[in-house]
Each structure stands twice: as structure tokens, then as C-alpha cells.
Amino acid sequence: MKIHIPNSAFLGNINAFIKLVDFSNPEEIYITANEKWMSVHPVVLCMIASLGVKVRAESDQEKPILCEKFTATSKHYFERMRLFRFLQLNSEMDIVEHESAGRFIPITQIKDAKVLSHFIEDMIPLLHLDKQQSQSIKYIVSELVRNVLEHSASEHGAFVAAQYHAKTNTVRLGIVDTGVGIKKTISRFHIVKTDKDAIQLALTPGITGTTSKEGGTDYNAGAGLFFTKSISRINEDYFVIYSGDTLFKLLKKQKPDTGLNSDPFADRHTLEEGLPIWNGTVIGVDMTLDDNENFSALLQSIREVYTSTVRSRREKKYKKPKFI
Amino acid sequence: MKIIEIYPIAGSFAEDKDKAKNIRLELITPILEGGEDLVLDFENVESLTQSFCHALLSELIRNYGVNVLDRISFKNCSDETKSIIEIVIDYMQ
After folding, report:
1. In a 3-state reduction of DSSP, which class is residue A191?
2. CB distance B90–A113 less than 8 Å?
3. Among A224, A236, A233, A127, which Cα is nearest to A172's?
């Protein structure tokens, strides 16, 4: 595999980064980086760390990960975010850890529900968020990491990282796994031909990978991804999901505003197929903290679409007796 | 009328659905089976996830029918908690 860390890779331009990744040899990773400046979304760091952990675990090679020495002035960010720790490489950088002032959450590997609960508790103070600001972020992290733990079948769990960006007053969040991917999960109970179909279904309310029944099981309702996409949609933030060869990106500005949609493809978005195949699922979220709708009001908006969609699907499936 | 306090089990952000399932199976179901009504007390629970609430309630509605809601009351709910409970109950009907 070859990964090049460019000077810029955020949700708006992440497609360019992904197109340049070469997944052809899963036995080794060769990492290069822009020589002068690198500024990337936490989801990019999670992608690289998760691949590093997977390759270390599965490769027979003596040195499965090679990384060119970083020379960019922003190289310390990658050390602080613990990328080299996950790659098990010596960065040859001495840095002073200053988590309390940094407003970031370094890459964290979550393999079980207990670690997730502790992570959520610790996350909010690290990002210095107030109670109102933290509601949506806690919600999203909990639902998405649980999706990974329950559906991805990845022995390495979820890789999560976040960064507060003062200039835009935004929290950037990445959640990544190297599991079976959305298509395989959804295909257990639904007919899907492509990664695009699978992503569309996964983002539709009431569709879960654990049953084909309306209403889900006692354990899964098929709501986590729809709620997350809806929170981004209402707040007009980026939401990116990449699995298999397809990347869906909810765009920031929704004009004309069509309201919340149960069909993700009815939202203003871009969709790119034929990308290098990611075995697993990558999710990136940006959350602008100012002028966000109150979380409770936001839930009320989601409630309306969620329940009406599920009800109308139930009605379509409902069979009446034929009296002749 | 029995009272089940959620906070001591699930914390201020109730998101662990294994805990929700345990509350349902070990605390709620025996009370309902015993013919008593119950109160789910959400004091100090700031919010909860849809997954938690679904694991807590959906199977009760499936097993006992929607009339089980006449036997369960929800107390000390924040606005967020109320919204999530309403979503799950709407969805199950």
C-alpha cells in the first residue's frame, strides 16, 4: 500500500487524498508526506492508523510499515495525535504533551463497550465543550462506534479521533474501521448490488443489518446512521461515509432547503464510485458549534421523518385479506 | 408501583444498550410479570441514545402490546430524554 499525506485533506477535498491511496499490496505500507505543510482531518489519521494496525497484525514482513521522515513544520501534530504510536514507528520528535490546552482527542482504538463509555466521558472535557455543545457529539460517537463494534466484525475495533478548530469553531470527528464494510453487513438481510446501494440503505431510517423486519430487533432499530446524517443535515455540516469503492458526502449548504429526507440521495450530496476499495467503513463528521439547533429541537425534527418513513414502509408491506 | 432508577445503572449519558437490555430483562420484565405497574425514573440522566431506549422499551411493546405503556410511567425526564422516548414509542406503534 502507498499513502501520501498531502498538504490538505479535509472532508471538502478528501476525495483527492483517497484517489491517490494505493491499496494493492496489503502486506506493507509505504507512507510519504508533503515536505512543507500537512493539515488533515482526524478521519485521515484514523484511516492511516487503522491500516497500520491491520498490516502489523497480518503481515509476515519484518518491516511492514515504512515512513519517510516528516519534514513539514506541522509534523508535530501527527505525533501529538499518536499516529506514530499506532504505526509503531519512532518519529524522532520530542514533544511536550499538552492535552488540556490542545482541544483534541488523539487517535484512540475502541474494541469494546466499556472502553467506549469511558472514552465518551473523557472526550467532552478534552474538547472543552459546554453541555449543550456536547450533546450531539456524544450521541454521534456512541451510535457510530457501537455500529462498528456490532456490525463491522473487525478484530481491531473502531479508531476514533477529534479536533476542535478555533477559526471555524468546528469539531472534526473521524470514526474508522477495517471490518467487512457496509455492503456485506447490509447484504445479510437486504438485496444490494453495489456499495452505493448499501450506503443508501444504511442511511435510510429503520434499515438494519441484523434483520429484514420493520422495527428491527430488540437490539437494533436501524437508526444510528440516519440520526447522525440528520444531525449534520440540520446543522448544514459535512458528513462523509466511505465504504467499498463508494464515497457519499453530504454537502454543507442545502439550497433549496428540502428539509430532512429519509432518502439520503434526496439531500444535496456528492457520490463517487470506483474509488480505491476500503475494506471497512470510514466516517467523517464536521460539527459547527455556533448557531446549532438545540439538540432537543433537532430530535423533534428527526422524529417526524423517522417515524413517518417507517410507518409508510410498514403500510406498503401490510397485506389486507382479499374478500371476493 | 415499583420505581426503577436509571442513573445508578446507566449514568448521566445513557448509551450502553447492554445495560438497557439488562434493565429490561432483570428489572422491568419481572415487575410486569408480577402484575405490578412501574416508574422509570430518569433523574440525573441528562440524555440517552435512541439505541439505549430501543433496547430498553421496544421488546416490551412487542411482547406485551402497546397497552404496556399504561403500566409504565416515565419520571424526571429531560427534554432530550423525552424526545428520544417519544421517538422509540412512535416507531414501535
Report:
1. coil
2. no
3. A127
Contact between residue A285 and residue A241 where contact means Cβ atoms under 8 Å apart = no
- Alpha carbon A96 to its chain centroid, in Å, reads 29
Pick from A52, A107, A120, A117: nearest CA to A77 = A107
Minimum CA–CA partner of A307 in chain B: B91
Residues of B in contact with A299 (CB under 8 A): 80, 83-84, 87
Which whole-number Å values give the CA distances from B90 to A91, A260, B57, in the listed order?
A: 53, 18, 11
What is the distance between the alpha carbons of residues A210 and A217, in angstroms, rounded to a whole number? 7
* Alpha helix (H) residue ranges in chain A: 14-20, 42-58, 75-80, 83-87, 99-102, 113-127, 131-151, 182-187, 195-202, 224-235, 295-317
Quick check: A223 and A236 in contact, CB under 8 A? no
**Chain A residue with minimum CA distance to B22:** A219
Give this prediction's pTM: 0.92
The answer to whether residue B25 neighbours chain A at the CB level (below 8 Å) is no
pLDDT tens digit sequence for A78-126 = 999 999 999 999 877 666 665 545 689 999 999 999 999 999 988 888 8
Sign of the dihedral defined by the CA atoms of residues A67, A71, A74, A75, in that order: positive
Q: Which chain A residue lies closest to B56 (C-alpha atoms)? A: A218
C-alpha cell belonging to residue A233? 443535515
Identify the bridge partners of residue A286 per DSSP, sorted by sequence position. Answer: A172
| Secondary structure (3-state) at A133 | helix
What is the interface pTM, i.e. ipTM, of the complex? 0.91
Q: Do A310 and B18 touch (CB under 8 A)?
A: no
**Residue range A102-317, CATH number:** 3.30.565.10
